[in-house]
Amino acid sequence: AEEHKFVIIERKFKDKDGNKHYNDYKVIRHYGEGSVGKVVEVVNTNTNKHYAMKIVNKLLLKMRKEYIRVGKGKMGIKTAFDAVEKEINIIKNLDHENIITLHEILTDTENEKLYLILDNCEQGEIMKWKAENMEFIPC
User: Fold this and answer.
1) Taking the domain 6-57+91-138, which CATH number applies?
2) How confident is the model at residue 5 (pLDDT cuts 50, 70, 90)?
């Protein structure tokens, strides 16, 4: 798998139509959001290729802490951002046609956000969570 570096966002603006731009990516559609971030569809303005952009708030993730056992009688602290870093390290090393590819990682030093540029799954979600049954069901 290719090596991914964090690319600093140098150009961040809204165009005349109100679309947000991050470097070479223009936001064209909002997919959804969770407690620490959101996912949008973007188009690379140079190549016209569509991607999913997962935006995560590093500051919120670093504030979510849990204590873990790190050895006999010793405790450590793990943050939710540690889990995101682990996800990034795993996904950037995977290379298979059935697994989403991580193409680029953008970082915004001003607002402590990470922008993961991923394959865009045109068909959408493959499963939804059904809370009343506590199970995933096919879409």
Assistant:
1) 3.30.200.20
2) low
